[in-house]
């Protein structure tokens, strides 16, 4: 079988024992695609130039409307009977617009746009459907061209490349936003890569009209998403998957992907079964050998050594590591099996069922602590669904919901919690969660914890949480004369654990070294300094406090600053 020279000049063949080249047999593909109509819908734009002009006119700043429009145009287009070349040109127009919108689909970026938090799930779902639609469209091309690679090679290679790229983008979107992975995503990804490899098209980006379709080869696209999948992205805190993705991209040259028949590789290597719907697996996890030729070895030993060298060579020279160095250290801990084992739960779990009500985030916990036990009990008894609370004194309406749930089992430092229905939108690993229990004298007891992983099931959400030390108390922190006091959570010192008093606030509001006035409950204002971070995630920060009585206070003592601050207290919101 001969292929166009342009597409096969870097084709590598496996040699047999007598030194002759043994051609790789293209695999049989089993791809899911949308049904095709037997007639053309006149309302669907099938002229690539006209479609491109319409897409160019979309107001990209209006993210929600633009996504909805692209979705509504793309999905019907995939059902139309159109020639392969025209279909590819249409998909390229849709892809160009989608790639402009896709980087914004993450909570940190969405927060910069004029969107309500309740709209985040809508735009994420629309982008998921668009990426799925792109993958479906390119897979339709692959199915049409694949039986005749001799005649269709010049279009088949770009179609295979784009289909693989679209599935990689869908997986990345799911990893970044804690979304469900499309069924058979890994299986189809493996098949597409296997086909590109069989034709010898995996080493360079596909070419269309004498122009490469991307900066990375199919091998690099495939390797990058497989490495990210190893980090268990759904257990990462907000934004970590994106940081890992960028770090892996910078170090792709250190990742090796090769054929293998060895199911017990060295430490630092992972196995990919091309016939499975599974990510790369560490040694010992592949129970039965796959069919001959279906196993690939993902060797990350050079990557691990490179990350470790950067960790020791970079961070020791500077007291404050750069964000890139912090991401490299976190990636090393997620990948290196020896370190990964030390981070996994060691305590045995024991069954323990208990009804609880869950509050998500530092703001929600602070709100209920300020209102007091009677208010919490009234909220708990007010219903079995999320509770909408109205602050009658300030006439300021808030939405601090309590979600009914139950503890399923526990260990010394963690719990498995089931939340009835759905968790709040935009809840991720790293978020603060408080479990209100009514165990002694009928009073609610807050148990503060951090979400380590979150999984949404049809009828409930399940979360693995790590119990945090200390009993929180509602507090206010005033960082300066020009700033009204901020709501905060004060954690008294824990002498037995040698933990000083700490302050918890939502992420991004304060910084280490900052001084200010602190008021805990009904106590007087006192001067403190944020001596450093005790713990931080992308959702909240816990600062170590240091008394600073020698510094003049900007709040307290009846000064004008205090009176103004007391009149302009920031409420939990």
Summed up, what is this model?
Helices cover 36% and strands 22% of the residues. It is of the alpha+beta class and 573 residues long.
Outline the structure in words.
The chain is an alpha+beta fold. Among the domains are: 350-467, Beta Barrel (Thrombin, subunit H), CATH 2.40.10; 473-567. The chain is built from 16 helices and 22 strands. The strands form six sheets. The protein has a six-stranded antiparallel β-barrel. Strands 17-18-19-22-21-20 form a six-stranded antiparallel β-barrel. A hairpin with a 2-residue loop joins strand 3 and strand 4. The chain is globular and about 80 Å long. Mean pLDDT is 81; it is low at 1-23, 338-346, 383-398 and 555-570.
Can you lay out the helices and strands and say which pair or pack?
Layout: H1 5-8, E1 14-15, E2 21-22, H2 48-56, H3 63-77, H4 84-101, H5 107-110, H6 120-145, H7 149-177, H8 185-199, E3 207-208, E4 211-212, H9 218-230, H10 240-250, E5 256-259, E6 269-273, E7 281-282, E8 295-299, H11 301-314, H12 323-335, H13 337-343, E9 350-360, H14 362-371, H15 373-381, E10 390-391, E11 396-397, E12 403-410, E13 414-420, E14 432-440, E15 443-456, E16 460-467, E17 473-478, E18 486-491, E19 502-506, E20 515-520, E21 526-536, E22 540-547, H16 560-567
Which key phrases capture this entry?
573 residues, Thrombin, subunit H, 16 helices, alpha+beta, six-stranded antiparallel beta barrel
């Amino acid at each position: 079988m001969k292929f166009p020279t342009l597409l096969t000049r870097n084709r590598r063949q496996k040699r047999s024992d007598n030194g002759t080249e043994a051609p790789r047999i293209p695999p049989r593909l089993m791809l899911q695609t949308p049904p095709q109509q037997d007639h053309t819908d006149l309302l669907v734009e099938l002229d690539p130039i006209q479609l491109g002009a319409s897409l160019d006119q979309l107001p990209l700043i209006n993210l929600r409307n633009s996504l909805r429009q692209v979705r509504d145009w793309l999905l019907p287009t995939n059902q139309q009977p159109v020639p392969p070349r025209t279909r590819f040109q249409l998909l390229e127009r849709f892809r160009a617009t989608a790639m402009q919108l896709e980087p914004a689909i993450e909570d940190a970026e969405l927060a910069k746009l004029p969107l309500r938090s309740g709209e985040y799930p809508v735009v994420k779902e629309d982008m998921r459907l668009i990426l799925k639609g792109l993958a479906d469209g390119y897979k339709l091309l692959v199915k049409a061209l694949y039986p005749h690679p001799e005649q269709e090679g010049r279009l088949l290679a770009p179609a295979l490349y784009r289909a693989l790229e679209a599935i990689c983008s869908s997986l990345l979107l799911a990893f970044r936003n804690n979304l469900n992975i499309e069924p058979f995503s890994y299986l189809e990804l493996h098949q597409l890569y296997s086909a590109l490899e069989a034709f010898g098209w995996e080493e360079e980006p596909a070419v269309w009209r004498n122009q490469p379709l991307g900066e990375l080869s199919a091998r690099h696209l495939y390797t990058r998403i497989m490495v990210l999948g190893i980090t268990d992205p759904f257990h990462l805190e907000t934004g970590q998957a994106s940081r890992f993705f960028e770090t892996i991209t910078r170090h792709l040259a250190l990742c090796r992907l090769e054929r293998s028949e060895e199911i017990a590789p060295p430490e630092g290597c992972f196995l990919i079964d091309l016939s499975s719907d599974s990510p790369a697996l560490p040694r010992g996890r592949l129970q039965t050998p796959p069919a001959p030729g279906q196993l690939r070895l993902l060797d990350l030993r050079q990557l691990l050594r490179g990350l470790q060298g950067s960790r020791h060579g970079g961070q020791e020279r500077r007291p404050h590591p750069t964000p890139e160095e912090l991401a490299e250290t976190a990636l090393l801990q997620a990948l290196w099996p020896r370190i990964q084992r030390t981070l996994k739960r060691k305590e045995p779990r024991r069954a323990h069922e208990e009804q609880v009500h869950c509050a998500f985030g530092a703001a929600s916990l602070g709100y209920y602590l300020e209102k007091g036990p009677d208010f919490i009990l009234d909220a708990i008894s007010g219903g079995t669904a999320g509770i909408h609370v109205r602050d009658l004194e300030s006439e300021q309406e808030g939405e601090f919901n309590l979600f009914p749930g139950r503890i399923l089992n526990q260990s010394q430092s963690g719990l498995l919690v089931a939340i009835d229905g759905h968790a709040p939108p935009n809840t991720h690993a790293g978020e603060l969660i408080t479990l209100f229990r009514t165990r002694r004298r009928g009073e609610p007891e807050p148990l503060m914890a951090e979400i380590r992983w979150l999984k949404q099931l049809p009828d409930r959400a399940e979360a693995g949480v790590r119990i945090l030390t200390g009993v929180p108390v509602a507090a206010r922190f005033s960082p300066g004369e020009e700033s009204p006091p901020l709501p905060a959570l004060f954690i008294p010192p824990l002498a037995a654990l040698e933990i000083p008093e700490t302050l918890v606030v939502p992420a991004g509001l304060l910084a280490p070294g900052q001084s200010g006035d602190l008021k805990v409950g009904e106590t007087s204002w006192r001067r403190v300094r944020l001596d450093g971070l005790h713990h931080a995630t992308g959702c909240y920060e816990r600062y170590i406090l240091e008394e600073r009585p020698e510094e003049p206070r900007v709040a307290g003592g009846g000064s004008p600053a205090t009176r103004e601050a007391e009149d302009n207290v920031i409420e939990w919101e």
